[in-house]
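The methods section describes the discrete structure representation at length, but only in general terms. Since the whole study asks how a given chain folds, the encoding of that fold should be made plain. An entry of this sort, consisting of the sequence and the corresponding backbone structure tokens, reads as follows:

. . .
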Amino acid sequence: MTEKQVTREVFDAVMVPNYNPQKVIPVRGEGSRIWDQADKEYIDFAGGIAVTALGHCHPRLVNALSQQAQTLWHLSNVFTNEPALKLAQKLTESTFADKAFFANSGAEANEAAFKLVRKYSYDHVGPEKNEIISFTQSFHGRTLFTVSVGGQPKYRKGFEPAPGGIRHAEFNDLASVEAVISDKTCAVVLEPIQGEGGIIPATPEFLRGVRALCDKHQALLVFDEVQTGVGRTGHLYAYMEYDVVPDILTSAKALGCGFPMGAMLTTEKVAKSLVFGTHGSTSGGNPLACAVANEIIDIINDPTLLKGVSDKNKRFIDGLNAINAKYGIFKEVRGKGLLIGGALNDEWQGQAGRFLQAGLAEGVMVLVAGPNVIRMAPSLIIPDTDIEQGLALLEKGIEKVVSEGSNT
């Protein structure tokens, strides 16, 4: 039987339409370059949405996966395995945490965290201390629980009734947190940089204030570092830049660099509430994922690499500001490390997708963070020459969109 050529149209024929992928189908990648079915080359500023933190087909990751694939793939959690134990040791030695739980994604890591904060409060206070505070425009995953904690109603629409006991405050507005926090609050959940919400960094004052409020009300502080973690901001985890330590941290995306991998990290005291039988994941912490993640942590948790992230940030920011000086489309270029957002000004509101498409046509892959922000989350080791060439291609795309005029 001859295998049929697959095209983008096959997606519409056989896949559930919850995604709307681009017309091109990438077939191979190397470093920060990708090639599609027609062998057209692209520079990758998207990084699989902040996932491929070491680029495509990094030789050390290929080797780690290949070696593990020849020894042991899966056991289930009836047994433990060496790669999982080694990874848990590395993560706890490198962070505030004492304990780790492994899952397959950021949503699963957050699901575990949200269950844990309620279980911890149930154990220490009682069932009445169950409220979770999150923030408008936040994003924490697509399960019913995580999408309910997330602060974007459009993702909950049609799936109600949503889980209760969840309140939303305004990001970077401490007074709004003070207005809703109480002794019924079991946790406050936040992203150090709101990703899907528009690449909005938390201020140090806000993070310190939220930590103090949590302490006052005996509530846990959860940092969702699914997008900001594993080197993305120039630190192994973003919390390390601030004098603020969470009680629980979630990690995924770059932790697997494309292999499904998630983790929840927490303290000894809090971890005690997830006793035997309270939570689990069939494939979470499997040897393949953990072998890859071990190598990733070894590579990224390196001062030279992390400093390089900050250096590359400046190159991106300077380049985007130079483009903006010519075309005047951004009201702000913001972010940290290699999580960068170009917030469109009033004239170009709602049109971020046009710039994404124009960049793709020129040969550079970027992202959006909602309809008003062009987002970039490339490899942490993207060569400077690729940054310069990619920005030049993006400028060509921006020039074309500007010449066509705004749709507003």
Remarks:
- Residues 92 and 98 are 5 Å apart (CA to CA).
- The mean pLDDT is 96.
- The domain at 72-300 is CATH 3.40.640.10 (Aspartate Aminotransferase; domain 2).
- The two ends are 52 Å apart (CA to CA).
